[in-house]
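Quarterly update, task 2.4: adenosine-5'-triphosphate-bound model.
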Amino acid sequence: MSKLEFKNVSKTFNSTQALNDINFNIKESEYIVVVGPSGCGKSTFLRTIAGLEDITNGEIWFDGKRIDRLNPVERSIAMVFQSYALYPHMNVQKNITFGAERRREEKEEIVQRLNDVTQTLQLDGLLDRKPGELSGGQRQRVAIARAMIRRPGVLLLDEPLSNLDASLRANTRIELSKLHKSMNAIILHVTHDQHEAMTLADRIVIMNQGKVVQIGTPKEIYKKPANLFVAGFIGSPGMNLINGELASRHNAATIGVRPEDINISKTSNGIPASVEAIEYLGNESHIHLTIEKSTAIIMSIKSEFNLQSGDTIDIEFNAPNISCFDESGVLIA
Ligand code: ATP
């Protein structure tokens, strides 16, 4: 059964359509990551679910109940902001319990929940510290603890890891994944970071210009992007997109091939390509190539090679993994 449902949800700010007819369902305990270019409506989407913005059209349902007209406190939804928004003059314990105390929840219940969340998030030794005395990762955990103490049915995370450095981000990703397994809640997580999306999500939602353009598991989205926008957006380097003509239909088409699906040909039937530049990354190398004089593509290879700029090589595509898009940019094969 779906837990959280969006039915024709739209949001307009004056002349800007921030959300345009969003329709999809989220299952119990799913981890959903929302990605898309800047300004596509990701934060607005989270804010409408939390009740911080009203929707202009449509309905939002949670657990069989329509929630889009309820106050934020009545929604069983908690949100963690990118800035964490902790109170600087309160210690960690007070930051976590303040909301529950203000809602006049039972004291004993609050203490019990405080113990639970601080153990889960390994904050028990830090309860007397003020936010200014914490590292970025610890502050982030306090913000999540404050959201979790409400025992929300849905936890909304708006770019929760973007203030952390790369190694802390990797650790916190793993912690988030463990946290999700330990709680019985839907997580909706907005990010710019594809690595985060691919590693954490049960399903990824890709937005563009206020619309949902594809929903799928990380593997589905990577292997079968629904259209040219998703093909270019997901993957780093992105899918190589090569314009051509569909022999069977005499129509313009675009072929999509991932950098790792291009190989140096072992036969004489390959496509001639000239090596423009080589980027060595340790575990792999990106070889920038030009085919048919002007089409730039990137090949990614893991093995040792003996190439340099200016070389001409023969390449081949791993045919089963090629995607084909029609002239309107929609995946057809
Ligand atoms: P980013 O990744 O840069 O944070 P986003 O995908 O979260 O962007 P939103 O912040 O949701 O995008 O904004 C979606 C659109 O709505 C943008 O065009 C933005 O300018 C507009 N918008 C957002 N909030 C308001 C507001 N309060 N008033 C008017 N327009 C707004």
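Highlight for this quarter: The chain has eight helices and 18 strands.
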